[in-house]
């Protein structure tokens, strides 16, 4: 058996105990990617570099005393796949899922990747993403669709779809992701993994830029255990003083269960008013019953969100940030970006973003603050510890089920001829089906709160649906206490899925 059944800490412990070498783990990961990636999860392999690093680590390990081995980084020797979106490594292709970047090789590494390496990970390759991370599925024209470990044509989700598929299949013990609208939590839910979106600013971006989608997006990981999630949060908690986002300190003095019984609000209701599927209702009912068994108080209640205004403010940010990104790219290229340089949705985002006036963009970002007040007041005024919803409005589906309508595609193709009013609302139409299936995750990217998707439920067909717990800013530690209790009670199922 070559697949990685355990969490990443398990394999680092085995390396430090000299029961397995780093080289053996890296060779095993490379073998798995070559022979078992029928999901199109991995789009780049860095075999020679990874093996050279592994051999150097093995030499270092041999030279250390047992006492000094204890001082090695917590993830020493663990092979990891890195999401091919923003997480750049010097000298390694970084495409962002776009043919515009297919030949781009960064000269320096991102701060997040530097931290990965400092904490002992060995990067063995990069995972598939939708172009620029805009979708809840992974279907870039550059690399093709990424499918679920549960079988084609089911989607692995997005935008960290390749990362989730690789981890759930057991190709590697660790996989990084990022979350700008649910892009860790969505694939975690669809693949049966743990997916934490930390508080805004908890992990570092940059260098030189700390406002990933104005703070809506953050880098972290998909994981298989709560202890692994806890340790990753502990070592990746990095808040440079230059960053505009400085979240509260965490209490990470050891993983433990909640010290008191919790009061948790829960809601089935979609923030955008879409119909909730029975499977999502069943998943939430199951989570509520499990919480009751543990003695927690659960109350059906709902945050009164204006979902239409919230989603419009989200897409307004997407459009303007895309326009700014493309303008930087045009400067680097020395020419204008043409429609055939990128996928249709990306070009539409660019064109629409150029038309958003400054006052409208400011209004959208101001609404994020209003939304944050709303969520925190809801928790505080009712003495709720957490807010619980389904992560997704159902299990994974065929990837083609999320395609935009023919009418919205035609509008994108002729976006230059649309009015400014039409372009400002076009992406609510383009992503209508996706938004109805993932209505719960993205509001938390606007508020900056932490949220975690836990694999607590499977349909009669064996397909997972996550339960999402939302906390106040800075309370990732409390989320992990509850997650740990649920895990210890046998309520979390995050084991790898082997193709039969």
TrEMBL record:
Q: Does the keyword Metal-binding apply?
A: no
> Which SUPFAM superfamilies does the protein's record reference?
Amidase signature (AS) enzymes
Spans through the membrane: none
Pfam family, any one: Amidase
Question: Can you tell me which residues the record assigns to a coiled coil?
Answer: none
Could you tell me the keywords of this UniProt record?
Hydrolase
Amidase domain span: 24-480
The protein's Enzyme Commission number: 3.5.1.4
Q: Name one GO molecular function term.
A: amidase activity
Asked if the record carries the keyword Aminoacyl-tRNA synthetase, the reply is: no
Family to which the UniProt record says this protein belongs: Belongs to the amidase family.
Q: What is this protein called?
A: Amidase
Q: Mind giving the lineage of the organism this protein is from?
A: Bacteria, Bacillati, Bacillota, Bacilli, Bacillales
């Amino acid at each position: 058996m070559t697949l990685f059944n355990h969490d990443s800490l398990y394999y680092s412990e085995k390396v430090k105990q000299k029961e397995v070498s780093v080289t053996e783990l890296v060779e095993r990961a490379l073998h798995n990617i070559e022979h078992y990636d029928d999901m199109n999860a991995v789009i780049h392999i860095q075999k020679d570099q990874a093996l050279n690093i592994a051999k150097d680590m093995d030499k270092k390990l041999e030279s250390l005393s047992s006492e000094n081995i204890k001082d090695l980084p917590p993830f020493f020797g663990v092979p990891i796949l890195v999401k091919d979106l923003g997480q750049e490594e010097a000298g390694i292709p970084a495409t962002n899922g776009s043919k515009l970047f297919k030949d781009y090789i960064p000269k320096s590494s991102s701060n997040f990747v530097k931290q990965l390496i400092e904490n002992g990970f060995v990067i063995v390759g990069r995972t598939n993403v939708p172009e620029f991370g805009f979708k809840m599925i992974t279907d870039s024209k550059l690399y093709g669709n990424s499918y679920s470990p549960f079988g084609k044509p089911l989607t692995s989700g997005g935008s960290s779809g390749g990362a989730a598929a690789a981890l759930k299949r057991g190709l590697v013990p660790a996989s990084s992701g990022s979350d700008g609208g649910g892009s860790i939590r969505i694939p975690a839910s669809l693949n049966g993994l743990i997916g934490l979106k930390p508080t805004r600013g908890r992990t570092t971006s940059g260098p030189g830029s700390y406002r990933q989608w104005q703070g809506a997006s953050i880098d972290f990981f998909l994981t298989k255990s709560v202890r692994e999630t806890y340790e990753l949060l502990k070592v990746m908690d990095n808040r440079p003083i230059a960053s505009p986002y400085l979240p509260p300190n965490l209490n990470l003095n050891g993983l433990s269960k909640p010290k008191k019984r919790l009061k948790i609000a829960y809601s089935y209701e979609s923030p955008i008013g879409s119909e909730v599927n029975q499977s999502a209702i069943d998943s939430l009912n199951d989570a509520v019953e499990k919480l009751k068994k543990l003695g927690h108080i659960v109350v059906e209640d709902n945050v009164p969100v204006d979902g239409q205004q919230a989603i419009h403010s989200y897409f307004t940010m997407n459009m303007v940030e895309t326009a700014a990104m493309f303008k930087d790219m045009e400067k680097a290229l020395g020419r204008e970006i043409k429609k055939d340089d990128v996928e249709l949705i990306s070009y539409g985002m660019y064109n629409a973003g150029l038309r958003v006036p400054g006052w409208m963009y400011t209004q959208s970002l101001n609404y994020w603050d209003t939304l944050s007040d709303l969520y925190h007041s809801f928790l505080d005024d009712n003495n709720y510890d957490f807010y619980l919803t389904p992560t997704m409005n159902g299990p994974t589906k065929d990837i083609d089920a999320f395609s935009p309508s023919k009418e919205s595609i035609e509008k994108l193709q002729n976006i230059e001829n649309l009015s400014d009013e039409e372009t400002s609302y076009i992406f609510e139409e383009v992503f209508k089906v996706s938004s109805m299936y993932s209505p719960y995750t993205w509001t938390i990217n606007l508020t900056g709160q932490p949220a975690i998707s836990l694999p607590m439920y499977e349909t009669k067909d064996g397909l997972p649906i996550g339960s999402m717990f939302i906390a106040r800013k800075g309370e990732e530690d409390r989320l992990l206490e509850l997650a740990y209790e649920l895990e210890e009670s046998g309520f979390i199922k995050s084991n790898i899925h082997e193709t039969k």
